[in-house]
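2024-03-11 09:14:02 DEBUG pipeline.ingest accepted 1 chain
2024-03-11 09:14:02 DEBUG pipeline.ingest length=474
2024-03-11 09:14:03 DEBUG pipeline.predict start
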Amino acid sequence: PNRKVTGKNTITVVSVAAAEADADALLARALPVLRGALLADADGVVLEVDRSPEAVAFASSVRAPEVSQIGAPCPDHLINTKHKPLVVPFDPETADADELAESLRRGADEYAAWYRGYYERNLDEETGQFPIDPAGPRVVLVPGVGIVTSGIDAAKARTARDLYHRAIAVQDAADAVGGFRSLSESEAFAIEYWPLERYKLAQAPPRGELSGRVALITGGASGIGRATARTLAERGAHVVVADLNAEGAQDVADELVSTYGLRRSIAVATDVTSEAAVKEMVRRTVLEYGGIDILVASAGLASSAPVTETSLTVWELNFAVLARGYFLAAREAFRGLIGQGRGGSVVFVGSKNALVAGANAAAYSSAKAASLHLARCLAEEGGPHGIRVNTVNPDAVIQDSAIWSSDWKAERASTYGLAEDDLQGFYRDRTKLGVDIYPEDVAEAIAFFAGPRSGKSTGNVVNVDGGVTAAYPR
């Protein structure tokens, strides 16, 4: 794109706007670093990228580093955008993604130090009763790329974005007609920490234990994956629903947005056996929310046949989905989590069959055993980075399952010499608790491993099977 000026012809653009693909590549690498810096003293953060022409033009202008630091144009902005944004020194023509990431990390740290000083300088007895906000910036200007806003959830990040658009219009117009002025630092602080406003904020409902977290679920369109998406969203997470069934994934994402609000979920069509598709899945997650905190690997299929009748195609398909698919998703999630630098949680959905030998399911059971051991290996590697890796082993989750709607149900019934309608009762009767297992039961165990209550647990296996003696871990 050509260099350009704003409508008032006063704020000259000095950086060429990065092309869409180039900007995405920069952001995919740099956003987790920024989010990690913001998470240093915030309990959950969601980002939003604004690449509109107005945002790119202002962030890239000669005067933005000066004009943007004068202060907020409206008192209402102070609660959502703070007194001033972070301006990152960056030129997309000469710098790369690593340099942008480092500029964002350093800038966020310097901004946090300034904000803590701002708080201490202006603190008095009346405002001292209110704790300091998370010290990181709510608005970040990136020349050539645009504006990144943050919030405790997607709605707050969107509010900051919308308000800063108004700030651009005011600052641009005021600068054009003689200069933009704002409140002094002490006046801004008095509004930002106005006791009545702070009291109002304190009355907000308690946040969920996963508020501000980003969860990526493979196989999220049905069964255990869908139940997990609902459970994590209910606890405050922003959920990426990934599935080969694109329509089903979109249905789940739409349901979550309808129930919990704007940008709380997106759908990504994903074939977990494809390296390129899995990379794109994680990239989409980062560009939408700024990073990732939780991966639930739940994509699955099943086959049942005597080994003499198990084709190489069937064998390799099981390992492609249940071993390769889990490996690829975990590898890409690890890359994002390590870049973010704030730990995270990976949960594999395994199977009772990973622990128990059974007839006529060699391909499925062996692939599940491979993914179980992969989780243990990843727990070893993830520990030094604060990344926890655990496995939940369900059994006989027949309701709402795409797997049990396939030939698997008939094949397993045949193996046990039962009619299909008798299979549910057979599985229930063989458990020590005498219970049926539902997707929501498994989702509860996954949510435990995903959240802070299991913060000191990794490398573990939890069975949700009603008590199958042969599957007791040992």
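2024-03-11 09:14:41 DEBUG pipeline.report The longest strand covers residues 387-394.
2024-03-11 09:14:41 DEBUG pipeline.predict end
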